[in-house]
Amino acid sequence: MSFLVDFVLHIDQHLVTIVNSFGIWTYLILFAIIFIETGAVVLPFLPGDSLLFAASALAANPTYGLHIWSFVLLFLVAALAGDSLNFLIGHSLGEALTRTSWFGRLINQKQLAKSEKFFKKHGGITVTIARFMPIIRTFVPFVAASSRMKYRQFIRYNVIGCLLWVILCCGGGYFFGNIAFVKEHFSLVVIGIIVVSLIPAIFSAVKAKFSKAPEED
Length: 217
Description:
By secondary structure, the chain is mainly alpha-helical. Helix 2 crosses helix 4, helix 5 crosses helix 10 and helix 7 packs across helix 9. It is globular and about 50 Å long. The model has no long low-confidence stretch (mean pLDDT 81).
């Protein structure tokens, strides 16, 4: 876990190491990380937003020979494919998996419950919003499928969310990632990205808590 935290906070340095070590295979490695983050259901802690930002910042630096449009396409396909696989798992095995003890140990049940509550409250648009919310975005496709949402409806919201997510994260990294202040304080920038991405979930939780207050009185 300490390695994961270090990887996320210093992801720019780790990506440089990956590029220097694997060259062109860097594209496949980063594709796999983004795909697995949502596709595997049980790995919501892999980096997402910060990875797109850092990779795009490297692409803006000609030293590394990376191409921003290749990243945009790969990340978009990885996000869509990962969410679709997650949806397929939820559609085919959702109810059966939630009843198995081994799945319960792999899945953070508290986060799964939060995702279910968020989905029920906001409906289909949750699929779009969740793409910007770490951890929750890993569970929402699974929850949507378990709730018998049609894939045609799911993919419509999903395409919008993935497009916006990739464009904003990659665009931010490409145009601002190499600014001197950002490079010198990259860890703080990553923390800022994480905090901003959690704002919708925090706002929703606070709103739900205050809306219950009158009932409790």
